[in-house]
Automatic annotation (TrEMBL):
Cofactor: Mg(2+)
Molecular function terms from GO: exonuclease activity; metal ion binding
The Exonuclease domain, residue ranges: 38-213
Keyword field contains Nucleotide-binding: no
Keywords for the protein's UniProt record, in alphabetical order: Exonuclease, Hydrolase, Magnesium, Metal-binding, Nuclease
Lineage per the UniProt record: Eukaryota, Viridiplantae, Streptophyta, Embryophyta, Tracheophyta
Bias (Low complexity): 1-28
SMART domains reported for this sequence: EXOIII (SM00479)
SUPFAM superfamilies for this protein: Ribonuclease H-like
Protein name: Exonuclease domain-containing protein
Domain of life: Eukaryota
Length: 503
């Protein structure tokens, strides 16, 4: 339950504070109003669906507001949320996941009662969190849709999962929050909203510190060398450095070694006498550190923004497990069948950011009505190429097993002396009478990160070609469709949404 408390003067009209759940730190309420300069780090805890078609029930929301310059928490808010039916929503699997029981949420307010606080906190601010694009943002939108209210809209998005994977690499394994916390010796993840967002902020600081030091120190003075020297000096003085995180008992030797690569290095830097400072945001390198994180924030605009309605189910290549990909076959009519590609029993839909356009829209190919088939050719990264080639091979074998005599056309084609993998993204049109419109959402992303949907009065291949120029970057959301027509078979990538980056 949320409790009312703040560093500012108490609001006499505020409701009487309710106690926080046993074992949890009290949650403070945030100042009213939306659209402030602070970054809103947030996290939701939900039920675990137990059957096909069952959605997620929101059980807890927690957030902190962070000063974007000093990276310190300025306010916080957390509340449990009572689902419509706690008995069916909170299963044993759900309790194992986050520890939130039916009794805990039975006395909590329904989302309708806390929606104003959540809206004021999030609307118009930069949102930040771990995997918020794919999961947390989608749950917030669903919660507002259930009560018939428009959801809050972010001014920007910082998803630390793809961002840190891109900038920090996979040093911490799967880059989940629990793995990152273990890597830096921050303790175990509790899977409670307020604890997780605070851990998220600390992980971001630690990662930025490592990246800053690696970019700043001479190659011979590696972070690892400095750390080992600092530990040696500390032990020679008769005590271990209090800044060295203690590796957990279940950590591997390699991971425990990695855990010593952040805080001690500050104390090992020559001069400054600031060895007692372990908080990267308050060290003498704070200006450079904040600048580096600001650069990370700008780079995060290249990550997928799937928060727009209808695109939260599109998966990035690294989220795909090929063992869960299968070909589903269903009868189409008396003598035919329809094949589709599924991932975990749902139609496979993919998204990938920053694809480079190789060839713009061409009018070379026509459909049966004589209209040009619109498509663009883009370079794709290796992780996407592997997923698509796996799907292509699986669908090809399925086609052969069905006794198809059609020639299979490979999905991924390679060009250039470096064998660069490319694919063709199809832009379908919807014909109504004598007019036609694009069925693909086509948007443009400004350098500021704002995305605007483009409105076209009619289908114009020339206008589209001027938008998708060679060398431009595009974020693509697309589905995979298997075709077998006129002795040709293969997989067609159908673009559902294309976001062109403005230069």
């Amino acid at each position: 339950m949320a409790t009312a408390s703040d560093s500012s003067a108490a609001d006499p009209a505020a409701a009487t504070p309710a106690p926080a759940p046993e074992g949890d730190a009290p949650a403070t309420t945030l100042p009213p109003g939306s659209g402030g300069p602070e970054i809103a780090f947030f996290d939701v805890e939900t039920s675990v669906p137990q059957r096909a078609g069952q959605g997620y029930a929101l059980l807890e929301f927690g957030a902190i507001l962070v000063c974007p310059r000093r990276l310190v928490e300025v306010a916080s808010y957390a509340t449990l949320v009572r689902p419509a039916d706690p008995v069916s929503a909170v299963s044993a699997a759900s309790v194992r996941c986050n520890g939130i029981t039916r009794d805990a949420v039975s006395g909590a307010p329904p989302f309708r009662d806390v929606a104003d606080a959540v809206y004021d906190l999030l609307n118009g601010r930069v949102w930040a969190g771990h995997n918020i694009v794919r999961f947390d943002s989608a749950r917030i939108r669903e919660a507002f849709a259930e009560i018939g209210r428009p959801p809050p809209e972010p001014k920007g998005l910082i998803d630390t999962l793809p961002l840190l994977t891109q900038r920090f690499g996979r040093r911490a394994g799967d880059m989940k929050m629990a793995s990152l916390a273990n890597y830096f010796g921050l303790g175990k993840q509790r899977h409670r909203s307020l604890d997780d967002v605070r851990m998220n902020l600390e992980v971001l600081k630690y990662c930025a510190t490592v990246l800053f030091l690696e970019a700043s120190l001479p190659e011979v003075l590696t972070v690892e060398n400095l750390v080992e020297r600092a530990i040696t000096r500390s032990r020679a003085n008769g005590a271990a450095s209090p800044e060295v995180p203690k590796p957990e008992a279940n950590s591997s030797p390699d991971s425990s070694k990695r855990q010593r690569t952040v805080c001690p290095a500050e104390g090992a830097l020559p001069e400054g006498g600031n060895q007692g400072t372990s908080d990267p945001s308050t060290s003498r390198e704070s200006v450079e550190l904040v600048s580096h994180i600001e650069e990370m924030k700008l780079d995060s605009t290249t990550q997928m923004d799937a928060s727009s309605s209808g695109y939260s189910t599109f998966l990035e290549p690294d989220d795909i497990s090929t063992e869960y990909i299968k070909i589903s076959v269903a009868p189409l009519h008396q003598f035919g069948r329809r094949s589709s590609i599924q991932h975990k029993d749902s139609p496979l839909q993919l998204c990938s950011a920053g694809l480079k356009v190789q060839f713009g829209v061409s009018t070379k190919f026509l459909d049966n009505a004589g209209r040009p088939k619109l498509n663009i050719v883009v370079d794709i990264p290796e992780n996407l190429s592997k997923v698509l080639e796996f799907c292509d091979d699986l669908a090809r074998r399925s086609s052969q097993e069905s006794s198809s005599t059609s020639e299979w056309r490979p999905l991924v084609k390679k060009y250039g002396y470096v064998n660069r993998p490319t694919v063709r993204l199809n832009i379908p049109t919807i014909v109504s009478g004598d007019s036609a419109i694009y069925s693909t959402d086509i948007c443009q992303k400004e350098p500021s990160g704002n995305v605007q949907k483009l409105v076209f009065s009619n289908v114009d291949a020339t206008e589209l070609d001027s938008l998708f120029v060679r060398g431009s970057q595009v974020d693509a959301y697309f589905s995979l469709e298997i075709y077998d027509y006129q002795q040709n078979a293969g997989i067609r990538l159908v673009a559902k949404r294309l976001v062109v980056h403005s230069k």
